[in-house]
Design goal:
alpha/beta, Immunoglobulin-like, nine-stranded mixed β-sheet, seven-stranded parallel β-sheet, 18 helices, 20% strand, globular, metal ion binding, hydrolase
């Protein structure tokens, strides 16, 4: 498992006389604004949930009764059901069958187990595809596809939209008042579908473009059609851009935005049904906004259809796992729900203690639930090799026992300040548009148009996040154009190649009002149309950062002087910074002219810091650590590499994410509330070990 790099000395500007002025005294601290209110019926503080995802479509009545008994014995408090099962409830057009599911809901209630009921709008049943062929997908080459796997549904089709709302309405009216019902979920893993290229899709795309741009002149300008003789003289000349190249990028970005809006409107339609039929039950959906083949702009729209950041959590390492979980939490005040949670899967069979470790890691981030995927192993279908908590022969595996241990842990912790209600003072900017703009599909585009984008956008985001995670600092991951930034004191903008006007304005206001913004290389190069700024860069913010960025260079031996130490860059690309009002905090050494590597500029009541390289943990860490005290940001407990911790009501929860034992220095003698051991001077965590220490 990758480890976080060792900590570096505190950041000290190269020119000592700038330190106090530029790094400590330029920020006026502001009160932290309260986040938006949660759903009035949310399962709040003092409640943690362990449970499982359950597919009763696979099970006999006898198996279901035994399954529920095992869940109850294991201490499970909630199950998620209904996902992927539209035709289980509606086997033919307009013919609904609920008797079997009624009995299961009643049995869950009798066992004291709550239910998250998923509206299974994906995948659509085969009868719907046969009767309404507009729901079939069409490739960009014009080939109509059969629904050969999950999510091969054209969710923009009017018949699909009509019928999924009818299904949702019928299902939620049926169970809205059932005593087992806890929450409603929408369309499992929506975002992991496909774009479609039918003639009807093209016409719907044109309607979307007309609403966005108003007239052809605006569209031509936005798509730069004066280039390569591609001017559009009539709306009917608009064709669906190819997602899989070639460009141009402006059109592809709008294609992605269009399908994102289709997804968001689908979720909004289902939320309207929930509000009508089950207004007292929150929406907790297993969403997948970052899915590679389509995805959607969750961070700009989540308030329309979500009360919790909920997701499938299948972590590989702490930085990526933590970042994605916080993306789903967004700016919400409610905790994170892991509607699917790692229980097995390729590469992890036989790894005892791993699920328990990640469950506690989730608690550090502000999670409230873990629902194992899945309860019973599937005998057939696309995921027949994913082992559940029961083996394929229905024998309870050791994994069921591990989740029972998690349930017992959570039963203790929910009385001790969990779930954590976080109010982070640090935010990292992230946007769907930027992800699409920096990841064009096709080698021709990547190699000839954007050769300097050698560091993927998500890599920059993770690199900016890693030192904060290492220092056990709470962080929000947000779309800065759609949040109240006044609640944060430090805003990190890592490699935001596309920076639209709303985001530009948000950064300007944040700094002017007293915030500290840190921006890294490759940022603010193109505007909201995905076209290069014709102004000094960073576009729209050159005065805020007090400099002009000029060109891109490559130096394999790139070093930055931080304090008395040269820090070697792991990424050889850098920008040449030309300060105007900005002050130089650090310079590259052994590079011609020793150009600035870090600058700071006072703007309004705040400060804007620019880093000339892509975000890298070894450079960002000392910079953050120099800022903490001046911004009123208190790092969490000190931990060795791979161990993470948070203090909760005077106690400290430690999680060892590594496969090696770790020792943690502690102050005096402390009691381990999970192990029952007494620890003096040091805590010894086994591989994947967890412990809650109390004086």
């Amino acid at each position: 498992m990758p480890r976080v790099r060792p900590a570096l000395p505190p950041f000290r500007p190269r020119f000592k006389h700038l330190a106090a002025a530029s790094m400590l005294a330029l920020l006026a601290l502001r009160a932290t604004a309260a986040p938006a209110s949660p759903h009035p019926d949310w399962p709040g503080a003092g409640q943690l949930y362990v449970g499982t995802c359950y597919q009763p479509v696979d099970r006999s009545a006898e198996q279901i009764a035994r399954d529920i008994a095992l869940m109850r014995e294991s201490g499970f408090k909630v199950v998620r059901m209904g996902d992927l099962s539209w035709d289980y409830f509606e086997p033919a057009d307009g013919q609904f069958s609920f008797q079997r599911f009624d009995a299961i809901m009643d049995q869950m209630h009798a066992a004291g187990i709550k239910v998250i009921l998923d509206i299974a709008g994906l995948p659509a049943p085969l009868w719907l595809h046969r009767k309404y062929p507009g729901v079939d997908l069409v490739t960009q080459q014009g080939t109509r596809l059969d629904p050969a796997e999950r999510y091969m549904d054209n969710i923009s089709d009017p018949d699909y939209k009509r019928l999924v709302k009818r299904f949702a309405d019928t299902l939620t009216r049926r169970y809205a008042r059932h005593p087992a019902l806890m929450a409603i979920g929408f369309d499992n893993e929506i975002g992991n579908g496909f774009m479609s290229y039918s003639e009807a899709d093209r016409k719907r795309f044109i309607v979307w473009l007309k609403k966005k741009y108003g007239n052809l002149d605006a569209l031509n300008q936005a798509w730069a059609t004066q280039r390569w003789s591609r001017r559009i003289g009539d709306w009917d000349e608009v064709r669906l851009p190819y997602a899989e190249g070639p460009g141009p990028f402006e059109r592809q970005l709008d294609l992605r935005r269009y399908w994102s809006d289709v997804t968001i409107e689908t979720l909004a339609d289902l939320e309207a049904v929930r509000q009508k039929n089950a207004p007292d039950k929150p929406a907790i959906s297993n969403l997948w906004d970052s899915a590679g083949r389509k995805g959607f702009d969750y961070l700009s729209s989540y308030r329309r259809y979500a009360h919790y950041g909920a997701m499938g959590f299948y972590p590989g390492e702490p930085v990526g796992a933590g970042f994605e979980a916080l993306m789903m939490k967004a700016g919400m005040s409610t905790p994170i729900w892991f509607n699917e949670f790692t229980a097995g899967g390729p590469g992890y069979y036989g790894t005892k203690g791993r699920s328990r470790m990640w469950a506690h890691f989730g608690l550090l981030l502000g999670a409230q639930s873990v629902l194992a995927w899945t309860f019973n192993s599937h005998l057939g279908g696309e995921e027949q090799a994913l082992f559940g908590l029961l083996d394929h022969d229905d024998r309870p595996s050791w994994k069921l026992g591990e989740f029972a241990t998690i349930a017992a842990d959570f039963a203790k912790l929910q009385k001790l300040g969990f779930p954590r209600m976080t109010q982070p003072k640090v935010a990292i900017a992230y946007s769907f548009d930027n992800m699409q703009a920096t990841n064009p599909v096709g080698s021709q585009q990547t190699n000839t148009v954007k050769p300097y984008l050698t560091t993927p956008y998500m890599t920059q985001a993770h690199n900016a996040f890693a030192p904060l995670l290492k220092d056990n600092v709470d962080v929000a991951v947000i779309n800065i154009a759609h949040e109240d930034l006044s609640r944060y004191r430090l805003l990190v903008v890592p490699g935001m190649y596309l920076l639209d006007q709303a985001s530009t304005d948000a950064i300007r206001k944040f700094v002017a009002d007293g915030g500290t913004a840190v921006m890294t290389a490759y940022s603010a190069k193109v505007d909201g149309r995905n076209q290069w700024y014709g102004t000094p860069l960073p576009g729209g913010l050159s005065d805020v950062f007090g400099l002009r960025t000029n060109e891109f260079y490559k130096d394999e031996g790139l070093l930055t002087r931080i304090g008395d130490e040269d820090i070697k860059s792991s990424i050889p690309y850098y920008e040449v910074l030309e300060p105007s009002s900005a002050q130089v905090l650090a310079r590259f050494t052994k590079t011609e002219g020793m150009p600035p590597s870090v600058t700071v500029n006072q703007y309004g009541k705040g400060q804007a810091i620019y880093v000339a390289t892509p975000a890298q943990p070894q450079l960002m860490r000392p910079l953050y650590r120099q800022l903490y005290a001046s911004l009123g940001i208190k790092p969490g407990p000190a931990t060795p590499d791979g161990v993470y911790a948070r203090e909760v009501e005077g106690r400290v929860l430690y999680v060892n994410t590594t496969t090696e034992p770790r020792e943690v220095g502690i102050d005096g003698s402390m009691a381990g509330m999970l192990t029952g051991q007494r620890w003096n001077g040091k805590l010894v965590l086994p591989p994947y070990g967890v412990e809650l220490l109390s004086k």
